[in-house]
Amino acid sequence: MFLLRFALNALALLVVARILPGIYLSGLASALVAVLVLGLVNTLVRPVLFLLTLPLTILTLGLFAFVVNALAFWLASALTPGFSVNGWWAALGGAALYSLLTAIINWTVGSADRQVASRDGQ
Q1: How far apart are CA 103 and CA 88, in angstroms?
Q2: Distance between CA 80 and CA 61 in Å, rounded?
Q3: Average pLDDT per run of 10 along the chain, which is 122 residues long?
């Protein structure tokens, strides 16, 4: 299931690049690398950014989390050849749309995982 989610997340990133101006992906290979880098950034860097900006996030009632997500998205594009995000609004929109698409993917694949697990348990 991990490989399925990985491939679907790469396709989601390709959709984001296709829909939003200011986000460019050179192809499927770049999308696969970008998803890997984005996963690493979200695992290693984003929690530190959230911790450092926690007071500001609390003051803005959580809205500053969008800024942190956009920064993580932008950082991933800076670290990935063939993936570029041109501008702040593109990073913000790209992070929001990519998060929405991956949430749908994870929910869909997760519900399929639960169905398989319940069927195996019977």
Answers
A1: 22
A2: 32
A3: 92 97 96 96 94 95 95 96 96 97 92 65 60
Per DSSP, what are the bridge partners of residue 83?
25
- The partner residues of 23 in beta bridges, in order of sequence, read 85
- Compute the distance between CA of residue 1 and CA of residue 25 in angstroms, rounded to an integer: 25
Helix (H, G, I), strand (E, B) or coil at 43: helix
pTM above 0.85, yes or no: yes
Tell me which amino acid residue 44 is.
Answer: L
Strands 23-25 and 83-85: antiparallel
Instruction: Report which residue type is found at 77.
Output: S
Distance (Å, rounded) from C-alpha 72 to C-alpha 94? 11
- The CA distance from 28 to 11, in Å, is 8
